[in-house]
Amino acid sequence: MTPSVRLQEMIRVIRSARTQGEERGIIQKECAEIRAQFRQTDNGERSHSLAKLLYVHMLGYPAHFGQMECVRLIASPRYSEKRIGYLGAMMLLDEKQDASLLITNSIKNDLSHSSQYVQSLALCTLACMGSSEMCRDLAPEIERLLRASTSYIKKKATLCAVHIIRKVPELAELFTPSARSLLSEKNHGVLHGAVVLITELCERNAETLDKFRKAVPELVTIMKGLVTSSYSPEHNVAGISDPFLQVRILRLLRILGHNNDSASDAMNDLLAQVATNTDSSKTAGSAVLYETVLTIMDINSESGLRVLAVNILGRFLLNNDRNIRYISMTSLQKIVQTDHNAVQRHRGTIVDCLKDQDTSVKRRALELSLALVSPVNIRSMMKELLIFLSSCPVELRSQTASGIFNAAERYSPSKRWHIDTILHVLTTAGGDVRDETVPNLIQLITTASELHCYTVHKLYRALVKDISQQSLVQVACWCIGEYGDLLLKGECEEIEPVQVTEDDVLDALETVLQSHMSAPATRGFALTATMKLSTRITDNVDRIRSIVSIYGSCIDLELQQRAVEYNALFKKYDHMRAAVLERMPLMEKNSPGHTNGDSSGEIKEPEPAKTKPVEPILLSEPANQVCDLLDLLGGTDTPVQPSSAPTSTATTTSSADLLDLLGGLEPTPVPAVTVYEKNGVSLKIQCDSQTDTDITVTLIASNSTQNDISNFTLQAAVPKSVQLQMKAPSGNVIAAHGLGQVTQTVLLNNPNKVSLKMRVRVSYSDQGTMLQDTVQIDSFPSPSWNSQPSIGVL
């Protein structure tokens, strides 16, 4: 029986094992025989035994005892034994094994062997498991083989050089001259390896990148040859000539053309040719086109070429392959901020992707649809998003509702449309909305005084129809308590009036109080609404008193406390009840008196100054990232509500007034201290004034890069007991080369004199890419203390 058959016989026996125990028994028996073969000093069957051991290793069983046998076989003069020895070394050894150092000399000798096949074995092994020490010792040999006469050795030596550069980056300069010369090769394997090697060199060294930018015309010529070449069976894949090499070249061109006008101009015509002549019906063609799109978007390309790239991604959205649709929407999401109008042309196709069966595709389509909402298409886009909300998966409802709320707040054409939209969301997915939705909607309703009658009628109908949506029920109870008299009048021009009696309203509220679906907070809303109706109705005050008295012994402490206090209003302070329960005054959003009251570290997102109106941009980041920032300040569960800070002019501080009394002295300015510096963007903090409980600081942002920074915003979070007010920023664009600044004043009120700290989130757009970072300020510079504050970038 031949040795190869014995290996096949072992495989057959192992596969025929019926139980895992039987398989282990067979493996143990075979391993014992293999050990015996290894102990024999002169045995021609060693290579076959090692081959069987490698199969055992592939099954997951221990095979470490064969490591030294690999070293012996590698040193053998016979090619058949070398082949098995090198294969065993690649499978059983790695750079952490001491035995790997023993084969360094054998590899060096085989790299100089007369047979190219022996050389290739050594090259493959070094590229697979070569350690840093081995790479340093053998790098000159690899550089020599890059100039070999045979393409077979060149392509393997090229990939081995890539491994050496990754292991020992300082050896990159050794391979730079040879890498450039490899671009003149005709063999596709050598060209592919050369492009990979040059890409690795350019990514690791900026000087090398500048050198290889001179090779752009040569790369363009190679790429044109691939695009226009006739059919070649050796390299053709689904009608595309060597798509693997095309993708590698396009990726290298993207690196060479980034932020370089001359290199970008040299490749514009080529990219247009590839984009128009490549067939996208096959996966290979789609891969080339996708890489072309990424290259166009990353270099300084012409506007027409960028529109062409967006159109290619639009065609990908019509592809039957869900993976292609997914990567298309991922790419569109990255460029929607810079090429908004071009992406808008494919809005209908993107909205259609919301109907896809795959959840990941739906999520990407949702994010992209929300980013495309604008004042022009707000009505049509919101209609589609509301339809999607009614049928979307449960895991997407919260994200969809938050996105609709943000878009409606930014672009609502009217307050009535805004209220109707939010009520629609609460009716459809009231259990999946954020906690801040209820106070936000209540604040919106109070400001729309002309819609009070319309809103209370609509909410009453929704309450009678369904009490399972807790957010909707809470808002409805609040409105009924505030505007119950408008509901009872039955006079409403905006909606068909419904005749509602006092008993009907109280029945609805009592149903909420008694329902097992009502949360404690919802019962609190209903009880307060019932109490407020005692001053708005006349015939059922005794019934209201009875309802309130019942909950004076409620097991829920909050509800019990409210009921006891309301009972006291009926008994001891009945003369004050009408004044206490009168309508709430108009609630201004983020007024100083309400800033950071019970919200733990509420983040302010100030509106642009009136003198410089800036159209807000809907960011694609998830809304819960704001809450993540607050969690860093104490793990609070209190919801966060982005809001606009007042734009009133800052008043003169008390310290400045005191100095005026002393003869017009001015306070000594405190030097600005740098708290953040990254990617060319720096942020400084300067203390303007400070008292025992108040501190006023100014955040100053500057830009030292070559490009303007746009969409620059600052968000801040402070501890629960500190009140925060952010003034409007001076702008949202920072000029390049340090020619401009953006400043923003922050007022902090610390009545409890707790340890003051603040987290600042920095968000901006650089060349169409949204960047975000967070910095922590644990102490502040003051007029009496000019040392550096304690900071940390997260």
Automatic annotation (TrEMBL):
It is found in: Cytoplasmic vesicle membrane; Endomembrane system; Golgi apparatus. Pfam families: Adaptin_N (PF01602), Alpha_adaptinC2 (PF02883). Signal peptide: none annotated. GO terms for biological process: axis elongation; central nervous system development; Golgi to vacuole transport; intracellular protein transport; vasculature development. The keyword Manganese does not apply. It is a peripheral membrane protein. Residues 601-612 have a biased composition (Basic and acidic residues). Keywords: Cytoplasmic vesicle, Golgi apparatus, Membrane, Protein transport, Transport. The keyword Protein transport applies. Residues 668-781 form the GAE domain. Residues 587-612 are annotated as: Disordered. It comes from the Eukaryota. One of its GO terms (molecular function) is clathrin adaptor activity. GO terms for cellular component: AP-1 adaptor complex. InterPro entries: Adaptor_Complx_Large_Subunit, AP1_complex_gsu, ARM-like, ARM-type_fold, Clathrin/coatomer_adapt-like_N, Clathrin_a/b/g-adaptin_app_Ig, Clathrin_app_Ig-like_sf, GAE_dom. Belongs to the adaptor complexes large subunit family. This is AP-1 complex subunit gamma. It comes from Danio rerio (Zebrafish). The lineage of its organism: Eukaryota, Metazoa, Chordata, Craniata, Vertebrata.
